[in-house]
């Protein structure tokens, strides 16, 4: 546990993580029950195990979307934790500082110009996300590095990139635009196994990479001087983290569109539940999975039978969470 | 630097720019009208296609742009002066998001598509958003920005939900909801223009007390300025201006940030000059952005807010870099 999290894991960490996992699985199970009519828990369980008349519906229609919510949520949580550690700021997450919106620009451009395959779209979004990360970082470093300045510069970049995305969506033909409108709000509706195979593999690889560099990340988060004295080479290490973090966000965005605020909220909620000192990766990933699965359940049930894009729910809920975070910060003083 | 002569000639230059922008907004578009034909549309009206386009379609849109630009720029200048926060702006602080969400809500609940009702809803929503953002953000410039961004996100998500849930009601709002001057030609303009004019006049009356307050609240108090009352009135005026602009054009960000910062050095220490420049240059920014928006997509319309956001991003970056680490 210690090597994965980069810091000692007390009993509260274990209890917290188990609690999040159990809640997440419960939410996922309820989502599996949801359809045109609700299935009973017994039917759902039988369907999952491969017998009963609802097997096809549950394993082919509902299961892909539920697993996408869990895996993508975990990826977003990981990405948020990486950038919050890098910027040493709870607000420095990829959805706030414009990386997610840029990844979406890449996906849009590739779709519009190359009518691309899934792999091309994913590559485009990773490249655009990395470019945005470079731009934000370059603009934010002037006479020393300030996390807060980086956040506000990121907000500015986010505004520009979002404007570009709107222009691209409006430019697209009307029919394409109707499809991209749901996509540009961030949606998991209608996901099938075919859509998620590649992203799942990518996210698994990225997660392994992150687990290996977690220890160094937490040392670096303590401060440049301390990290250097303990033998961390900051330059290459940061670059690797940025690539891994952008990879997580961009992979999700290429498939589901920009799902905002999961990356912002998950690491902080996970940190509080597990009572951790820094921003550890594992609770962030688990909380992200829970948050996105719960948001997707809400998105499917709130306006039955028409499902909403899940990004709308995460934006509203995550924004409310951000306000709460700010209120708490004011109260503390 | 604070030479009145320089300020005056600068203002003349700004007025010239406004004239050019206004002429461009009458001439440029899907159907480009030569300038002499634009002039003839007013002096020697002959009901040709060109004349009709200029007088019936583009002229109202030009007035709309002028009113929205002046309202947003002055609103931004007032909020920056009031909070002494270089990052403050009605769009960034969530005021426009509050106004547009209130309009969506009022339309969804009561089919309130009367203009007066929409203006009232916008003002109420804007005031509520201002109150929430200030309650959350407190006195820290950066936290205010974050509170505004967060509130805008919540309201944006909820607003999108309302629009998706009731697509029929909101078909007309497709352009408005992203901030645009398009498709508002048929809407009567008298009431919103009147509200904006009253707001601008009120802003003028606020110049002396705000000037006094530049030196600090205590100095202003000893000079006989009622600080608390001035603050409240300023807050109401800037909110109403932003709300009225939002009610006619939808949420447009960054105008209130860009314009005051462009003239900040020239007008340093004088609220009156700052507002004068804002009244002239706000419309220039909106009109030019609107012309660019028309050129970006000749077959249709790019919302003007897309252009201002694209121009506004770099300005925000510049401000943040210039004013250093604005820590909480």
TrEMBL record, chain A:
One of its GO terms (biological process) is siderophore-iron import into cell. Keywords: Cell membrane, Membrane, Transmembrane, Transmembrane helix, Transport. One of its GO terms (cellular component) is plasma membrane. It is a multi-pass membrane protein. The chain crosses the membrane at residues 12-33, 66-84, 96-115, 121-140, 238-266, 273-294, 306-327. CDD domains: TM_ABC_iron-siderophores_like. InterPro entries: ABC_BtuC-like (IPR037294), ABC_transptr_permease_BtuC (IPR000522). Pfam families: FecCD. It is found in: Cell membrane. GO terms for molecular function: transmembrane transporter activity. Belongs to the binding-protein-dependent transport system permease family. FecCD subfamily. This is Iron complex transport system permease protein. It comes from Nocardioides soli.
UniProtKB/TrEMBL annotation, chain B:
It is a multi-pass membrane protein. The chain crosses the membrane at residues 62-79, 91-110, 116-137, 144-166, 191-214, 235-259, 271-293, 302-320. It is found in: Cell membrane. GO terms for cellular component: plasma membrane. GO terms for biological process: siderophore-iron import into cell. Its main location: membrane. Residues 1-23 form the signal peptide. It comes from the Bacteria. Keywords: Cell membrane, Membrane, Signal, Transmembrane, Transmembrane helix, Transport. GO terms for molecular function: transmembrane transporter activity. Coiled coil: none annotated. Belongs to the binding-protein-dependent transport system permease family. FecCD subfamily. This is Iron complex transport system permease protein.
């Amino acid at each position: 546990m210690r090597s994965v999290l980069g810091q000692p894991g007390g009993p509260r960490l274990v209890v917290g993580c188990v609690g999040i996992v159990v809640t997440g699985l419960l939410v996922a199970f309820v989502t599996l029950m949801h359809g045109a009519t609700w299935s009973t828990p017994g039917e759902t369980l039988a369907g999952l195990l491969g017998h009963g008349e609802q097997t096809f519906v549950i394993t082919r229609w509902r299961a892909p979307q539920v697993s996408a919510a869990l895996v993508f949520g975990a990826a977003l949580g990981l990405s948020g934790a990486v950038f919050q550690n890098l910027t040493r700021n709870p607000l420095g997450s990829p959805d706030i500082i414009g990386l997610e919106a840029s990844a979406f620009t890449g996906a849009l451009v590739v779709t519009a110009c190359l009518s691309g395959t899934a792999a091309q779209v994913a590559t485009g979004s990773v490249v655009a996300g990395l470019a945005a990360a470079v731009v934000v970082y370059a603009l934010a470093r002037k006479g020393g590095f300030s996390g807060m300045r980086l956040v506000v510069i990121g907000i500015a970049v986010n505004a520009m990139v979002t404007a570009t995305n709107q222009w691209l969506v409006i430019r697209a033909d009307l029919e394409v635009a109707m499809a991209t409108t749901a996509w540009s709000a961030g949606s998991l509706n209608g996901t099938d196994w075919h859509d998620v195979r590649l992203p799942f593999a990518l996210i698994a690889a990225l997660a392994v990479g992150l687990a290996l560099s977690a220890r160094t990340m937490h040392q670096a988060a303590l401060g440049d001087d301390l990290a250097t004295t303990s033998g961390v080479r900051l330059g290459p290490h940061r670059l690797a983290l940025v690539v891994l973090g952008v990879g997580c966000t961009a992979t999700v965005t290429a498939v589901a569109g920009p799902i905002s605020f999961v990356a912002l909220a998950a690491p902080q909620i996970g940190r509080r539940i597990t009572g951790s000192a820094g921003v550890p990766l594992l609770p962030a990933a688990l909380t992200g999975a829970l948050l996105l699965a719960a948001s997707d359940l809400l998105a499917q049930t709130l306006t039955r039978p028409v499902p909403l894009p899940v990004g709308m729910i995460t934006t509203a809920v995550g924004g409310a969470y951000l306000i709460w975070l700010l209120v708490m910060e004011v109260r503390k003083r | 630097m604070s030479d009145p002569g320089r300020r005056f000639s600068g203002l003349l230059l700004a007025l010239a720019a406004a004239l050019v922008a206004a002429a461009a907004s009458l001439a440029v578009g899907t159907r480009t009208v030569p300038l002499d034909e634009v002039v003839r549309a007013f002096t020697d009206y002959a009901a040709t296609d060109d004349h009709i386009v200029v007088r019936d379609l583009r002229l109202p849109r030009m007035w709309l742009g002028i009113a929205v630009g002046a309202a947003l720029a002055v609103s931004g200048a007032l909020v920056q002066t009031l909070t002494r926060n270089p990052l403050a702006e009605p769009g960034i602080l969530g005021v426009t998001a509050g106004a547009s969400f209130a309009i969506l809500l009022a339309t969804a609940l009561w089919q309130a598509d009367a203009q007066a009702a929409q203006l009232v809803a916008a003002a109420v929503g804007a005031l509520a958003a201002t109150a929430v953002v200030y309650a959350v953000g407190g006195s820290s410039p950066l936290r205010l920005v974050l509170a505004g961004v967060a509130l805008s996100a919540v309201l944006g998500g909820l607003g999108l939900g309302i629009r998706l849930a009731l697509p029929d009601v909101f078909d007309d709002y497709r352009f408005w909801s992203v901030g645009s001057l398009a498709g508002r030609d048929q809407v009567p303009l008298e009431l919103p223009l009147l509200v904006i004019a009253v707001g601008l006049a009120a802003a003028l009356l606020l110049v002396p007390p705000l000037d006094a307050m530049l030196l600090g609240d205590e100095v202003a108090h000893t000079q006989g300025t009622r600080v608390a009352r001035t603050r409240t009135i300023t807050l109401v005026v800037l909110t109403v201006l932003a709300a009225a602009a939002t009610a006619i054009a939808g949420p447009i960000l960054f105008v209130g940030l860009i314009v005051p910062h462009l003239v900040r050095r020239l007008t340093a220490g004088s609220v009156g000059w700052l507002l004068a420049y804002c009244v002239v240059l706000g419309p220039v920014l909106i009109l030019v952005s609107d012309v660019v928006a028309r050129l970006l997509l000749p077959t249709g319309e790019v919302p003007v807010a897309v252009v201002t956001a694209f121009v506004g991003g770099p300005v925000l970056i510049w401000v943040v870099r210039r004013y250093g680490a604005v820590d909480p």
